[in-house]
Amino acid sequence: MFKIEPRGYESKFWRYASPVLALLLTGATSGLIFLAMGRPAGLTVYTFLIAPLLQQDGVQALVVKAAPLIMMGVGLSLAYRANVWNIGTDGQFTLGAICGGGVALAFPDVTPWVLFPVMIVAGAIGGMLNGGLVAWLRIRFNANEILTSLMFAYIAQYFLVYLVTGPWRDPEGFGFPQTALFSDNALAPRLIEDTNVHIGVLLAPLIAVALWFMLEKSLLGFQFRVLGQATRAAKFAGFNENRLVWIAMLISGGLAGLAGMLEATGTLGQLTTTLSPDYGFTAIIVAFLGRLNPLGAIPAGLLLALTYLGGDAAQINLGLPNAVTGIFQGILLFYLLGCDILLLNRIRWVSSRMRATG
Amino acid sequence: MTDQGLPGPLLTMTGMTKHYPGCLANDRVSLTVGRNQIHALLGENGAGKSTLVKTIYGVVRPDAGEIVWEGQKVTIQNPGHAQRLGVGMVFQHFSLFEALTVTENIALGLNTAQERIGLRERIVRISNEYGLPLDPDRVVHDLSVGERQRIEIVRCLLQNPKLLIMDEPTSVLTPSEVQKLFVTLRRLAAEGCSILYISHKLEEVRSLCSAATIMRLGRNVGQCAPAEKTIKELAEIMINMTLNAPTPRPPSASTAPPRLVLDKLTIRSPNHFGTDLKEISLSLAGGEILGIAGIAGNGQTELMDALSGEIPAGRPESVVIDGVAAGHMGPHERRRIHGCFVPEERNGHGAVTTMTLAENAFLSGFGRQALVRFGVIDTKKTSDFAASIIKQFDVRTTGPKAQARSLSGGNLQKFLVGREVLQNPSVLAINQPTWGVDAGAALAIHEAIMALAAAGTAVIIISQDLDEIFVLADRIAVIAGGRVSAPVPARMATVESIGRLMGGGTEPVRPYGIMALAHANGDSAGHV
What single string gives the DSSP state of each residue in B348-396? Predict the structure, then answer.
């Protein structure tokens, strides 16, 4: 029979092999699901991971999708390393889009050199307000941030629905739940003419590198890491836990807000009720797939972006429901967390008879 | 309990072997416990005593080896099976419900309703018979540690055991409670219940046990009648090295200005079951070592946290370090005014076990050693600092990049003490300096503490190990129920006088106390 026994140390090999194994298992399991739906099992890997790249402008679509996921994944990596479990990035994303978009709608004629920086700040502040509220509730009332941040995600979503169906609805929009289109001044600057590749594609990896440096090399990052691994040791060192919780929530919230603002002004061009296809929740998978390392969030974000494109392709080409994307991502997170048991444990085959050892 | 006179030993174990990943906990260990015998199982922490004993109690399944119980070869399946055979065990850590009475707690451990009939009467009878005074209707919350231990013993005796295993039973008792326990154990042995007594306290083993099995690194290293050996001989078998007792320190001049002053330090424990500190006043000069004795759970953790600043005191003047009122400061600020601290718990408090030694050196040293430049960790300097700790304190490890958890308890403790000592503190506070540490490391730590004091640091040591206190301290105080007694010079204190205070004795310590103690010591120079 199989026996799981502790290694007594953390395996370096499995630290990097575990996500690969999780990917393979995800491919196999989703293949079985494809089989059950009457499609060849091999098609799943092709559909989700290869086909999107073969399309025209596939790479451009990929990096645009990946940018917000990377930004949020980076912020979450930092928060999770400090044991701050912000799972409401979707709400912070939405609030960032509302605040940034609100500025865009209010001042359509201001020159972009002023307007866009103000929108960046507004978007970040929107996410930080939400994140800060979660931090305050945890510190002041010892309220679990997993619950509060998730609840705020719903509040933000309904607030968005209220705005775009109510006060902010485009009067010339034939009653559709959406705002007016942003003015050209308010659109995120493009890196490549006539494409969707906006400035966020450049910002995301820069932010990842900056936060990696902060987390691994600075005193502040050291404080986050100690807090996450041993609360009492953080106390012993004299680190202020409340301050660190504040910073972690403000950074992860602020980055999500920034991502939301860029998504609204970079790819959509207006606010709609379907602003975020659960980007904030997918970012949780990005953070874990990237081993809670800000640099790891870059490939992880690209991979998860691929699954979104693959889901679209599956819907269009194979006629599969959109939920397939969610299922694929869910299976991936499941195996990611499951395979991590191999970090600290090994699986050994033992014969049923106990063997004598000398 | 009336198997007297049967031939042959009660328990014979041969070739017991148990592998854990990365370590061989028991390597062909043998053990023979005779009838009516109090048998000591001696060894340092990590010698494999617990594994062996857990095998007898059916908690651990051995990889190899043979157990013969009363002449019959047996495979002990689980603790229930062990109990049916007649094995009882009193663990070091009790499993009692604080909110329930003595009888209720014992009833919970019984398997059938039938066994509960007349339970209260049987508890009273057994506790009277063996000198274990216990009120069956008291709630556990109100009982002392000694009384709680009696519940565990009575719980075992109700099963009519033939072998009673006691795991480090005296570590939580006052000296007088220890004496009472020994009377009980001797009576039990005389009536046919053998006792397997696990300890690393050699004095106790010599006075109580008629036979001893000594273990080191998972192996048998000797069998003897402890009374025939000196403590030094026993210790040398146990740790396989020749011991040189640290040289006694010359008494320090207490005329130096105080470096640490506690003035009516009063703190509410943040922990629900913790102990509040009540009006603790102390004054400590440079070069002086103050030992604070006490039984576990009397406020030691809270005192340590109050000294380090992890629990700040309300009033700044209640903790004064080198003339600076520091009561309101956190640990980082207190380090800046030259206070350094070694908490009791290594794993996750003094050290982050999943981080490297370099990172752990940084943890408390980054301020005093200036290991940060413009908010960025100076990796080179940090690694050098860790390397110098490793070198000067002979920490056995692969280097600054090794994870803290890869070190043995003794080596990690040397690293943590070294980390603070090398920061040249004015005041050093250590809680349990050598808890769970092998004798070699303990000696090194003691020498480091004494050298630091000789260089002018005021050192405060909180320890449950009276021997350690007597070896190191110039003055001794006792913490009991969150209060600290007035310190007495170590040469005027005796184990008995300190023991009385540890039990919460309220004898006035000054001026009558010192004279009485001096008298008891036969010290005629005790003029006050």
Answer: TTTB-TTSBHHHHHHHHHTTTTT-EETTEE-HHHHHHHHHHHHHHTT--
Find, in chain A, the residue whose alpha carbon is nearest to that of B342: A236
By C-alpha distance, which of A117, A154, A106, A126 is closest to A278? A154
Q: How many inter-chain contacts (A to B, CB under 8 Å) are there?
A: 87
- Where in the sequence is the domain holding B347, given as residue range(s)? 258-484
List, for residues A236-267, the tens digit of each pLDDT value. 999 999 999 999 999 999 999 999 999 999 99
Report the C-alpha gap between B206 and B40 in whole angstroms. Answer: 9
**Residues paired with B478 in a beta bridge:** B293
> Does residue B501 lie in a domain region?
no
Residue A204 three-state SS: helix
Task: Report how far Cα B27 is from the mean position of its chain's Cα atoms.
Answer: 26
Please, is B506 exposed, middle or buried when counting C-beta atoms within 10 Å of its C-beta (0-12, 13-18, 19+)?
exposed
Domain co-membership, B234 together with B132? yes
- Sign of the CA dihedral B515, B519, B522, B525? positive
ipTM for the predicted complex comes to: 0.86
Chain A residue with CA closest to B356: the answer is A226
- Bridge partners (DSSP) of residue B23 are B20
Q: Do B100 and B226 have their domain in common?
A: yes
Residues of A in contact with B348 (CB under 8 A): 229-230, 232-233
What total of structural domains would you count in chain B?
2
- pLDDT in the model for residue A236: 96
Residue among A7, A237, A346 minimizing CB distance to B363: A237
- Give the H or E element holding residue B74: strand B72-74
Is-contact B16 B55, C-beta < 8 A?
Answer: yes
Q: Residue A219: list chain B partners with CB under 8 A.
A: 366, 372, 375-377
Q: Do B377 and A218 touch (CB under 8 A)?
A: yes
Chain B nearest CA to A225, separation (Å): 9
- What pLDDT does residue A79 have? 97
Q: Using 50, 70 and 90 to split pLDDT, how confident is the model at B525?
A: very low
* Mean pLDDT of all residues in A264-288: 92
B290 within a domain of the structure (yes/no): yes
Q: What is the pLDDT of residue B79?
A: 87
- The two structure tokens encoding residue B26: 């028991």
Three-class secondary structure of residue B282 per DSSP: strand
CATH number of A2-349: 1.10.3470
